[in-house]
Amino acid sequence: MTKIADQLQLIPPYCPNSRCLFHFGTESKFFVKNGWALTDKPPFKNQRYKCKSCGEHFSANTFGLDYRRRLAGLSENVLHYSLNGMSNNSIARLLDVAEGTIRDRLKEMARQSLYFEKEHLPNKIREDVAYDGFETFTHSQFSPCYVNTAVGSHSMFIYHNTFSPLNRKGRMTEEQKIKNRELILKHGLYPRDSVYEETCYILKNLATIGAGRTLYTDKHKAYERAVHSFTFPMDFETISSERRRDPSNPLFPVNHLHSLYRHFFSSQKRETIAFQKHEAALLEKMQLMKIYRNFMNPKFVRKNKFDPHAHEWSPAMYVGVIDKILNFNEVFGIRKLKTQMKLDQKETNFVNRIYPYSRQVIAA
Length: 364
Ligand SMILES: [Zn+2]
Known about the structure:
Layout: H1 4-9, E1 31-38, E2 45-51, E3 57-59, H2 75-82, H3 88-95, H4 99-118, E4 129-137, E5 144-152, E6 158-165, H5 174-187, H6 194-210, E7 214-217, H7 221-227, E8 235-238, H8 252-264, H9 279-295, H10 315-319, H11 328-332, H12 345-352
Parallel strand pairs: 4-7, 7-8
Antiparallel strand pairs: 1-2, 2-3, 4-5, 5-6
């Protein structure tokens, strides 16, 4: 629920009617105030508006993250707790709400953060990029996966996070082998070329903005195949996994990020009992972490003598897409609508939680 003081300051940024001329926003005053709606929850009053073009009615609430939510104002804490290592269950207990409420807020924020990101994309990369897969699993160890991650070598800006399911291989007990075979009989194998496909997707996105820079990866065959599958305009260098994993290693930015994932996600700690229930939950968390790290926090917490801005500039500032560290409201304050966005197939699937190979039932 939007506070009255906020409502008085709000200038409706767009018309929510997807067929209206003003759906994509306008500088002009396209609306008239149209009284107050009384509600049964605080603040009990809600400014109403009417669009001058299409006649659609809407209210101050329409533009808030808590639109049609029964409990207001939870999201900021949920985001902060979730990205600093608390499980959904602990957050729910701390905030005295149902766990489903936490999941709902994370899901909505993940969508909103994608929309936000679409409006703040770098149009040129002025640094090299490190690329590698973060190995984890969803639901159970029988569903391992990679989160394919592209990170700026200097900025630590996370350019891409996509998902590749893997088929479980390697050492298993007899019991595990039987279980694995049962799952495959029931659901089929996961797509076998996903790492290659996802890498192609990321490389094609990087290609338009990264020409002349170097992409570093490890010696994974799928990465090399992807690089050679089209005219890739970046230089390409593979790094042996035997090379020391210190800051001089070109893959350091991506290794460092992956260690942060292990540190900050309750589900990614070793021997944890928390886990991501399905692909959507994992990817949404990754998406939120991306926005949180890129836009809402400095590159490093501590001062760094080789990089004097590291403790006061966010990765997005290094990349040049924004000029300050953003707070929660600056990212999530104005809710955007799917109909306002130009999304590709992968992004549409993300928003609609479509994972065709998933072995779990994922609520939309
Ligand atoms: Zn309208």
